[in-house]
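In this section we walk through a basic example: taking a raw amino acid sequence and producing a predicted 3D structure, encoded as discrete structure tokens. The instruction is simple. Fold the sequence below.
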Amino acid sequence: SFALSKSPRHFLHCCARLLGLEHRSRRGLIGVDFNGRRVNVRCGLIGFDVARTRELRDTRDVQVLKAQFAKEQEGKTVIVSCDKIDRLSGISLKLTAFESLMRSSSHVWYGKLVLVQLLRKPYSTYASAKLLKGQQRELDLIHELADSINASYPGSVKIIDPNEESPKIRAAYFSIGDLYLNTSVRTGLDWSPFEYVMCRETQMNPLCVSEFLGCSRVLSGSFSINPWNVDCVVDAVEKALQLSSSERVHRLKRLYQFVANYDIDRWVHSILADVWAARKDSKEDKDVGTLAPGLGLGPDSRFLRLEASCVYTHLDIPEVVEKYKRSSRRVILLDYGSAYAPHSLVGNLQVDARRYGARGATPSRPDQDFIELVKGLSQDERNTVFLLSSQEKSMVKEWFSKDNWEQFWANLGVTAENGCFYRWGKPHWESLVNDLDLSWMEKAHKVLRTYTDRVHGTYIQEKSCSIVWHYADCDQDWGAMQARELTDHLEDLLENHEVDVIPGQCRVEVRPKSINKGVAVELLLRSIEQKKPVDFVLCVGDDRSDEDMFALIRDRQRFIEQENCAVYACTVGLRPSHAGYYLSEMAELRQVLKALQDKSISANRSYSTTDLQLLDRHTDSGRSARFSPVAGVRGDKGGRTALEGLLE
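The resulting token sequence is shown next.
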């Protein structure tokens, strides 16, 4: 939570520039997804203790001081101000502007206007009896300027030194002030304007506050001034002092109502409400518990808030290999696109291709290592390997050409454009859904063309059943801002069409609701299960477009009811996902595929004469075993054949 509106903007900007994280809005809160958790960002001024200020204002001591000060300044218009002794408080600028006001309007204000400047110790020396050297120099300068003004206009400036200032004296002066003046050049949180408002709650007197004051944006109705512009300050003060009673009520009513209602209790409840709203909305609050596993030790430790119903488990490679070894019908689903490009992932952070001068929509061609892994897995008759891509059919067709892959199509399938087209076991491509309604594409294209003309570096990618607007090559901040506006625009325009508007990594895609990777995977699994039940599923992806596939794998009733089915839905990079497992980087995925390939090769190899000779020596040493041309090797009492035991 930040007090100043510029702070969350800078925070989100740093997240985008340094970590490559795009912020999104959810349930009215803006945030980023990082390390398996949602980090929400809010901006809200810290609450003001209204009850305590009212109580102080109404005490007998303050009322006595108020009467005393009012008698001293009887017949005069009082401008009050309270600042820390700091050059950033702009007190010297305030005195300069006040002197200019008296000089230009002495015929009006001579002997009738007084500036009461209360000085407070900075927080760095609040408990100290002495000021620092720099603070003492600033105090001397303030007194010098005040003495100079009083020499020309006697009694016009009254300085209350920090040793004299107290909450009671401050409340008393605020209670008789006709105008509050602040000219700070850089101040974060300052409650003095709020205290003044509460002390003048019934009269609704005006305020002139610096535009550089942290709380100036919530002081609606006050006069905003640039302290460096003396004429601006003088003009604002004169206008504020000349406001009629009706103009004050009209201008300041909302300000006084806001300050009176925005107490510290309300602020705390607002914080707690936003913390509660940050919970993941997958289930009702009453049904969901929370876990907070600790990471690290000492001052570097931190906690990740995770839903008790969700599992964020690092994929155990030996366990996966063991389940793979014991299974007889396997399905391996791999999202293929930019995910397997060498530059795509560093740890769990997505690195945009634009940083390397590449077009954001053009992923790398499959490298030789990945090709060998896929071919090795496809040669095992118990496996069905499916590569799911969001790229165009022509590009996927080029990657997996007929000449190089013809012998593997029996156990290898490929999809393009998020499952709209697929090839599996046949020499030609097929369409997932026939007779798609694409009447919406012309409307969407016109809107995308408008945004492309507006944002330099963006371009449109047209596919057979979808259309994508890419902004990887333009300014990141401007592109992301336009993408959010475009998403809202398309959702309103295409509300009556059966399409989804999907914001992604430096892109906005529009596609039919009936086309996604989840639908394609369901069709594949049904086809395989007509012959034999599936008892091993490995599903891996690294993009938001893979969540449909993960959700299907997680919720599929047949997998839930089947006892001996090993299902692993895995995302690359720890992030909020429907997948129950994660891998930290693409190198780990290649390790998994390599281990599965090696297990398939060892399981399918033919036993040679040398193997049998080794077995014969082993049995001669005392274990009884006999070969038969028909039965092969007779098993031992444990049920394993001697050959299997030796080879293990």
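Looking at the output, two observations stand out. The first strand starts at residue 24 and ends at 26. The chain has 23 helices and 30 strands. In the next section we compare this with other chains.
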